């Protein structure tokens, strides 16, 4: 059923579809309504396939059901639902039309709707993550690690409270982003691998399947094994909701790291700071009325998406509760989970592209570093003094720096006037700083390189995992 | 640009579009991306119209701009944006193509993008509320008030803690829903009327318009008056965010009342309670595996939508903050506000339809009322005793009821054994209850009728408001 | 019952109690557990007072109950609750000990617990707001308006996207804060005035009071009138939850404005921007290891409190739903509402104190304004050009500014080379900017002064309201 | 500093302190302001201990610092903070007073405040979880598993949509609670073990410690090893916020399971359902006006606490973002994290106590099971029919059940009239149900026992972990 996309309500299906069609089309394979029906059909197929294996369904059932899966049009299922008012019954009715009469009764036999819906939901998520989300996240990691490596030695003033603190390097900054995003990526993978299916019937106690099989738990395991899933240890009508919840926690907390990077990039592009910049495309307009403006709107966009999608995790916490063996107040809401994943993936992609275009302004970095006239040397001064056992070192240095600030003098000059500093000035550590205050970057460079190295290994493994991954739909081949 | 709706990501644009196409098509007039462009064009038109009035723009400008508004295809604006990377500049560029060269420079003159976007946003909301949301809410009010009236005298056991308390009437229950939803509807109307526009330029200080007009605040007022809006007392690049926030608070808190009604209806349909029921459509299926089941899924659906959309108000609170004269971390997120309004309206409509079909089971009401054997008479017993100055009345009655429960006796019998109750048994109030414990409904009936009457008046006024309302688009006629 | 405050869990009761004891002690009058019991007793008193008036309770009851209210120790109520496991029954039992036997049965007569709890809750909120929260908010308004007035003409570069846009004035910035916070203050006052009470019994239908009075609704009105409250039009066991919800919405959205101010102040104190500063107290330490640092931690604190307390509004939305005539899943949660109000008031106070100490760095303002070499003149240039009918004015100016930037030239020089600009250079508006680009502030100064004036009037009225306000506790006099 | 607890604002520090003093006093050891100072002192001690080991601090420093830790009064630290306006500087100043002059300069040497605060925060959490939270969670698990075991064979009608579905057993229901809570407990343990510390200085790059040590990363590892912690792979001024976030996610999602149990218990105690009940204490009052009422308020309380504390996780997601090397808008908010943990632990404890008192009403279970007259046999009928290849089995059974319902007949009678059912009636599976429909519980009993057995093993291990655990404070011995 065709419709003008500009008539859609959700920005994801209009504006953000338009702005990244390629990615949206790929996400659609796993997260659209089409995908719902396709994956549910596949789960129904797995049942029939095992039933034939068990000798319950007639020979050839597996082949027929595979064929049916590929043929049924979603539109027909929706039309049938208008009659049945029940989505899975509609699917079953339609599937039965595409197989022989002898096979038809075995479709969905012993299953409850949620055996299909819940299992299909887990499969769509897993496939979508292995095929799209994780590869995109890996790409971002590579960009972050590249910058961490490349700028490992580029000195930048560190900032706490928005105030100049002591120096780090740009590479160290990015190694932090990479480390945090990498850890989230591991959480994501774990949560995806942890997803479970079920084939335990209307209230989870294998009531129906116990009629057909002596060991209905074994039947459940066999059906799910076809789809490469394990059953939840316990289920009611539904799979325990915590598996999906953990996954969305991983997504939203990873989204937080995207927002962190974006926020820093925004601030470091401020007119007064200017340490980073974006290359401007030809024809691009910064402001409709201020022709001179260039705005970090892509980074703002990522933060804005994070603001929109983060509170939505709360619905997942609320959906943990379902009365008795299940009320259905988690049914409509669960359908919206794919929106979070979609927005997250779009944001990864936008950030990746933007970081590839980012330009470091080395001159501005230097200017900012010099802004305080080396006032950050107060810290090493205090540390070295104290390490030599000088009492009140902190107070002493505070006074010196206040004098330096007030009188516009250099710290280097002032300390020579005060005998307390004698023990310090001859130390190698201090001489090194006297030569160039920008040397006061601690282990920024080394740590950036080490962290980068560690993650390059880990990322390589995740990539391999993704490449070797077989989608649930392959059961149809 | 056409696309298969089943490829969409948002359930609003697939499943819930399918399930209520008529309403969704109407909502689309105000809340789709199409509507964004159409309303923004209208705001641009208002500027040119006033400029001609002021003698700044050439004669005939108003006519040309009105024509342009009707002609420009959204698709063309989107294509232009791919070049400019700026949506309003794209709109302006396209509009300029549809007017004469002499008129072109006056399009958007002195405005900043947000003058257009923010004002258009307010207009879309206002029109959508007057034309769709409020009329739908009024319809629900009518259904609630009808039930309140019709069942004003239908006795129902009241429940607190899920335990039987003392009786009310079904009408009284519904008068409460109506009263709460009615109050929210008033809040909604207020918030809609309070929406503001702006035409104060890039940082809100009329920098640009001051170059053209001695009294740029007057210019702002004149442009907005054309659209029936007032300017915010203060604006930065953006309108003060609290106007929209108040509106969304009204929406989400009204949504809470829908959830309240739905939750009660769910519970009152429990197998053990069964005081309400839904008429089943022919062919409808309750469960894919349990052929005997009938489920209150429409009420569950409304609660589920409420769970999904309520947390999204948080983004509105977070979007109150925008650095300096504005950062744009509220830009993408603002685009999603329409989703909340859409889900709310769909839920109103679903609830209305469902309540029209609801069936009261008078027999079950009576059975439940009798379940405790009139144990609820403990309350009037205690009240009447205490009103006669009996000490420890509460304790006394507690003992009587515990005995009645334990020994399976009637309260009426037991109290005759205890002299304390002498003063009570001859009171009219007590005799009335002895005749029929179901008489203990206080003022349920009268209050239900009174509340219903009050709201019928108020609703009539709101309806009149809606009918007399003129949409912003009428500026084009 | 005394306890070391450092053993408390909540930071409000330890750290933030310590840091502002005076204010916390005042808030405690209305928002502590002590206040719960005291206000509940007052509501019980109102019932007895009216019952005596009606001739139901014996003469002298009013006097006795007033005395009891003043005497009962909260500790005793708590001890009683350990037996009854019911807080209001405990209160009633204790109150009965402090009056004569003849009066005792009339205490709480016809009321349900929630008549007391709900009404007392409304009273505590109202008193606390009139006596503490609103006066504190007024104080902040005064500081904001003072700065708006004082700095109405102090030019500052406006910033959007963190990028220099066009100039405003510091006063205009603050008039915006004042306007937004002022509007929230009005919402607060409205919501406080809108709070309702109830005296309608266990399920809201006046079941019990109907036994005693022909017009129990009148009785409810009379009791509440003593406390200066109106009854909700409808109640179940509880007052409609939307009254408190609207109040908390007003609080949280006002908190958002505090966070906005704080965020701007943080950013404007960045090392590179430095337009504002805080006076440092003697002995104050900025960093434990960096003796040179001065940090805007008070502003950070306000934003942090806002982050902590904003999500808590969600519980209020969730508490809108209560099954049937009430389940009690909103009971414990409601007790925490006072924390939001407390944190909000503390934050107002901190922000007020901090803004009183804030220092404007006029030199830095000028330096930042000059940073772009008047590049912001691109806007007036484009506007004036376009107003003269020049086509492609936006594009033309964009090219000029890009050239100016690339070649390090002044816009003033470049435009003389291009004939298009002839019509502009002789305009008064342009000459004024040529004289001093800082003149390009639009109506910043005038609007700041106007907005300030409007609010000074409004604030005066609110102050009068607060001064004339009589607390609920005065019923005891 | 002593204060009347009834003057406190937070319900945790008044009402809920009163209602469970023993537990609150234990939680206070880890989560009060006292504990903050005590743990921060311990981290400072670890630094000095390692410095002596390295030969930097004078001999005997370790002994002195250990003594100081035990002696310093929190009150003194707070007084000092009033001067320094900096909490860690205050602590250091005070500690220096309790050691010799030669040792003093080595206190805090090379550390930034956050090295202390962040590390101490991790330690308090870890100790509090191992010593209180996890043991309490284990106790709840034991109660859940006991009920699962004991009632493994107690038949209960299963419910979906609040409607009767097919039977399970009470034990199976509880095995589900146990399984879900158990999984959360594992997540909790994992997250606790994953907590990290830091000793990397003001911006995380070891700037200061690099002056003193060739391998400052080694120094960090050595100090933290004393406290049994590992350093974060990367830190800025702060430890990566995701470690604490994961822990709070585990807490809040475990809280969701508590709410699930409570919600079910509430509903199963409804007057009409009555399958569970609470033993009433002598003297306990159910309602202040309805002497006959018994309410499931403890279960309501747990759900209410869950509603209050769940949204607070959002602040943790928002606190993931901190500008550059850190702004401090996460400082005040982080202090409130302990409230979530406290409320969670109190709720575990309350639920445990309540479940110990819960009474199963076997008669009511049976009555409810019979309510539908075995209508749930529709499911096995359909399954068995379909398994024999009967077409339209679902439709066929639906008709039979509708007839049975309408005509008030038994399914057993009706199916004998229809030839389709011939193949079924002689099957053992069907005969078994004909004998007793309550036999249709699938594998409820077996699964309940299996799940219970698995968790008893796991729980035993967790208990051993807790018993063998050594607190951070033991470094002082």
Proportion of beta-strand residues of chain A: 5-15%
Q: What's the assembly state of these chains? A: homotetramer
Report the CATH superfamily of the largest domain in chain A.
Fumarase/aspartase (Central domain)
Tally of distinct domains of chain A: 2
Q: Report helical residue fraction of chain A.
A: 55-70%
- Give me the strand/helix succession of chain A: EHHHHHHHEEHEHHEHEHHHHEHHHHHHH
Q: Tally of extended strands of chain A? A: 7
Helices of chain A, by number, come to 22
Distance between the termini of chain A: 28 Å
Please tell me the overall pLDDT of chain A.
94
CATH architecture of the largest domain in chain A: Up-down Bundle
In terms of topology, how is this protein built?
The structure is a homotetramer of 477-residue chains.
Chain A: E1 2-4, H1 15-18, H2 21-31, H3 33-53, H4 61-71, H5 74-84, H6 87-97, H7 113-150, E2 155-160, E3 163-169, H8 170-193, E4 196-197, H9 207-212, H10 216-226, E5 230-231, H11 242-268, E6 276-278, H12 297-309, H13 313-318, H14 331-334, H15 337-357, E7 358-360, H16 362-370, H17 378-387, H18 393-407, H19 411-416, H20 422-425, H21 428-435, H22 444-467
Parallel strand pairs in A: 4-5
Antiparallel strand pairs in A: 2-3, 6-7
Helix pairs in contact in A: 2-3, 2-7, 2-15, 3-4, 3-6, 3-7, 3-10, 5-6, 7-8, 7-15, 7-22, 8-11, 8-22, 11-12, 11-15, 12-15, 17-18
């Amino acid at each position: 059923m065709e419709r003008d996309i500009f008539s859609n309500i959700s920005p994801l299906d209009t504006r953000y579809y338009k702005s990244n069609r390629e990615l949206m089309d790929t996400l659609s394979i796993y997260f659209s309504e089409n995908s719902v029906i396709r994956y549910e059909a596949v789960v129904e197929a797995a049942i029939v396939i095992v039933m034939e294996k068990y000798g319950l369904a007639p020979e050839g059932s597996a082949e027929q059901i595979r064929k049916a899966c590929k043929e049924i049009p979603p539109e027909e299922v929706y039309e049938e639902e208008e009659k049945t008012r029940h989505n899975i019954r509609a699917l079953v009715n339609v599937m039965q039309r595409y197989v022989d009469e002898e096979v038809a009764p075995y479709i969905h036999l012993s299953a409850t709707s949620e055996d299909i819906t819940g299992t299909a939901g887990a499969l769509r998520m897993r496939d979508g993550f292995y095929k799209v989300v994780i590869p995109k996240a890996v790409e971002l990691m590579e960009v972050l690690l590249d910058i961490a490596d490349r700028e490992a030695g580029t000195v930048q003033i560190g900032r706490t409270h928005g105030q100049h603190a002591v120096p780090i390097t740009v590479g160290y900054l990015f190694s932090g982003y990479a480390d945090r995003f990498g850890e989230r990526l591991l959480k994501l993978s774990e949560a995806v691998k942890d997803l479970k299916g079920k084939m335990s019937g209307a209230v989870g106690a294998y009531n129906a399947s116990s009629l057909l099989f002596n060991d209905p738990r074994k039947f459940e395991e066999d059906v799910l094994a076809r789809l490469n899933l394990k059953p939840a240890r316990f289920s009611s009508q539904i799979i325990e909701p915590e598996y999906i919840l953990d996954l969305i926690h991983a997504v939203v907390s990873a989204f937080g790291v995207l927002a962190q990077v974006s926020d820093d990039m925004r601030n470091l592009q401020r007119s007064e700071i200017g340490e980073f910049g974006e290359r401007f495309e030809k024809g691009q307009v910064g402001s409709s009325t201020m022709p001179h403006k260039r705005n970090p709107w892509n980074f703002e966009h990522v933060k804005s998406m994070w603001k929109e999608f983060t509170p939505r995790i709360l619905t997942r916490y609320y959906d943990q509760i379902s009365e008795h063996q299940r009320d259905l107040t988690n049914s409509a809401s669960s359908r919206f989970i794919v929106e979070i994943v979609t927005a997250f993936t779009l944001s990864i992609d936008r950030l990746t592209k933007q970081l590839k275009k980012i330009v470091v302004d080395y001159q501005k970095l230097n200017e900012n570093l010099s802004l305080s006239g080396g006032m950050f040397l107060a810290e090493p001064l205090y540390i070295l003094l104290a390490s030599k056992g000088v009492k009140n070192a902190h107070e002493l240095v505070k006074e010196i720096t206040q004098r330096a600030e007030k009188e516009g003098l250099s710290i280097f000059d002032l300390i020579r006037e005060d005998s307390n500093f004698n023990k310090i000035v001859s130390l190698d550590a201090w001489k090194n700083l006297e030569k160039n205050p920008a040397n006061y970057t601690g282990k920024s460079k080394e740590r950036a390189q080490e962290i980068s190295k560690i993650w390059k290994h880990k990322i390589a493994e995740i990539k391999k995992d993704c490449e070797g991954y077989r989608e649930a739909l392959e059961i149809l081949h």
